[in-house]
Specification:
Number of domains: 2
Organism: Serratia odorifera DSM 4582
InterPro entries: Solute-binding_3/MltF_N (IPR001638)
Distance between the termini: 46 Å
Protein name: ABC transporter, substrate-binding protein, family 3
Number of strands: 13
Order of helices and strands: HHHEEEEHEHEEEEHEHEHEEHH
Keywords: Signal
Family: Belongs to the bacterial solute-binding protein 3 family.
Shape: globular
Helix content: 25-40%
Largest sheet: 5 strands, mixed
Length: about 325
């Protein structure tokens, strides 16, 4: 199983990138199979469904035009993200992962077929705004700025985590002073980057050493940077960091931050502003929560620590 899954991951990278370095391949092959304790990727290829919700269907705006009739077209991450959010199944074409599972629950509740479209992080905003996608389910945090352009129906709490090499001397990172002078890997344009930059601004005003943010192109490069000592820590979605820590035993958690720092925040299905579909999506999510299918999805991807008991529309987020 380990050999097959590693081959699939390399094929994924070769499919989406013109070149791949020997060191990146070596980093992948040095990792154990993509399965963490309690996470069975083969079993997780089997879809989880939830019943159609009459309430959700009734809230679809009259004459609403989906990208494809009778189908919910959703942009989500595969390459450029990391398990458990999105990856390819053993056939190297079927998208699995927690985000694909959530998308299926939403579509089921709305009585629609599901079409998932792997997309780059940079592509989903224009894709949703232009109507190329009906929705994006991409570990997207609700923020004040994003709410001016999109509508949100929440489905998970947002927690960010700092992870370091297992042998690192760093014991904690949970406040601004802790990042002073450190080399931290973070995704460009993400809310975690916004948190780091805000903390760095505070530090520099106090005369503390500046943060050195590092932007890498893929997970293999991030792994290499941490393990080689070129970076001190990674900062990103905690469920991803926890998954990788369980997976390899080579990293450990040294601090968490609410995704909406300094307030709590939520991850949400993202839709075009004002088109009315958000009400139906919220009802569909609440139906899946009530049916138990929602918790089954989170449980099988190790995300239940971030569960919610009901979906909200456009709640306070980062920047509010």
């Amino acid at each position: 199983m380990q050999t097959i899954i590693m081959q699939v991951k390399i094929i994924m990278m070769m499919k989406y990138r013109a070149t791949i370095t020997a060191t990146a391949i070596a980093a992948l092959l040095s990792m154990p199979a993509l399965a963490a304790p309690g996470i069975d990727l083969i079993a997780n290829e089997t879809p989880i469904h939830t019943p159609k919700s009459a309430e959700a269907v009734a809230k679809i705006p009259a004459n609403f035009k989906f990208v494809e009739p009778g189908t919910l077209t959703v942009a989500l991450a595969v390459l450029g993200s990391a398990p458990p959010f999105g990856l390819y199944a053993r056939d190297n074409k079927t998208v699995i992962g927690s985000e694909a599972d959530i998308a299926r629950l939403v579509a089921d509740g709305l009585g629609l077929k599901l079409k998932v479209v792997p997309a780059a992080w940079e592509d989903w905003p224009l894709g949703v705004a232009s109507g190329k996608y009906d929705a994006a389910i991409y570990n997207i945090t609700v923020t004040k700025e994003r709410k001016t352009k999109f509508d949100f129906a929440t489905y998970r709490q947002d927690t960010l985590g700092f992870y370091v090499k297992t042998t690192s001397k760093i014991t904690k990172i949970n406040s601004a002073a802790d990042i002073a002078g450190k080399r931290i890997i973070v995704g460009s344009g993400t809310n975690q980057e916004a948190v780091l930059l805000a903390w760095d601004k505070q530090n520099q005003a106090k005369g503390l050493p500046a943060l050195i943010p590092q932007y890498v192109t893929d997970d293999a490069a991030a792994t290499l940077a941490i393990q080689s000592g070129r970076a001190d820590a990674t900062f990103g979605p905690n469920v991803t960091g926890a998954y990788k820590a369980l997976l390899t035993g080579k990293t450990r958690l040294v601090g968490t931050v609410p995704g909406g720092w300094p307030n709590t925040a939520n991850i949400a299905v993202t839709l075009k502003k004002g088109n009315g579909l958000v009400n139906a999506v919220q009802a569909s999510l609440n139906s899946a929560i009530a049916s138990g299918a929602y918790l089954k999805v989170l449980d099988r991807w190790g995300e239940s620590i971030e569960k919610i008991d009901h979906s909200e529309i456009n709640p306070p987020g980062l920047g509010d």
